[in-house]
């Protein structure tokens, strides 16, 4: 059984790491973009951000003044047990969010949509979001925190099967241009695309694609992996760079996730993670071990399963 005190302590550490320490995969992608960027203002922004990251880590301060809205993803092995149950786990994550807001510190961005009530701790009705995933084996728990900007950098459209790949490309490019021209996202960024599902799950897929996959990872479907490479190149061909200035590095990487949808539609969402891609992960074991990492490893074969049973019948037959 995993102690609840350890969950809260680990969650507080993750909040600090996410706000301050850039994941190495994203940092490498950003450095590669800086080396090839030839737009004057875009180059200036990229170099300034790289310097800011070094300063943030050295001074142990949040790398960006707007620390976004913290959210949690929890993935559990099927045999995992939490002291006090799931209510205790959610309380621990809310406590960790409140304590980190004052301790890191983070900007208290959460308010009531109507009354603008602000508890100054990023906690309130439905905040922070906590989403769950499960794996067939294991007695561990993965805690993943993501600090993503909560205003813009997201769009959705209901496409139709006849729109095809060309229609997906058109909406993708329209969205990136709007992000850059109207200042709706902080580029360059990891772009996540959700295809299919229903409107709500399409948005979830796209956000997870942008925040829960590392730079350089590719979808397990080879055809989708090819699209990811193509869309990265396509996004960097529109003449925009850092923060929408003239340049050629708007997309650090493009990740695509899909879900089965209604036969008559093809839902699509586009999400830009922040220029400061803030995420941190820890795996907690019942023997007290805690392993920190930056790769959420969310999209496992189980998360992308198509079959009714798990493992698929073909796998069972092979055994």
From TrEMBL:
<comment type="similarity">
    <text>Belongs to the class-I fumarase family.</text>
</comment>
<keyword id="KW-0408">Iron</keyword>
<dbReference type="InterPro" id="IPR004646">
    <property type="entry name" value="Fe-S_hydro-lyase_TtdA-typ_cat"/>
</dbReference>
<protein>
    <submittedName>
        <fullName>L(+)-tartrate dehydratase subunit alpha</fullName>
        <ecNumber>4.2.1.32</ecNumber>
    </submittedName>
</protein>
<keyword id="KW-0479">Metal-binding</keyword>
<dbReference type="GO" id="GO:0008730">
    <property type="term" value="F:L(+)-tartrate dehydratase activity"/>
</dbReference>
<dbReference type="GO" id="GO:0046872">
    <property type="term" value="F:metal ion binding"/>
</dbReference>
<keyword id="KW-0004">4Fe-4S</keyword>
<feature type="domain" description="Fe-S hydro-lyase tartrate dehydratase alpha-type catalytic">
    <location>
        <begin position="10"/>
        <end position="282"/>
    </location>
</feature>
<dbReference type="Pfam" id="PF05681">
    <property type="entry name" value="Fumerase"/>
</dbReference>
<dbReference type="InterPro" id="IPR051208">
    <property type="entry name" value="Class-I_Fumarase/Tartrate_DH"/>
</dbReference>
<keyword id="KW-0411">Iron-sulfur</keyword>
<keyword id="KW-0456">Lyase</keyword>
<dbReference type="GO" id="GO:0051539">
    <property type="term" value="F:4 iron, 4 sulfur cluster binding"/>
</dbReference>
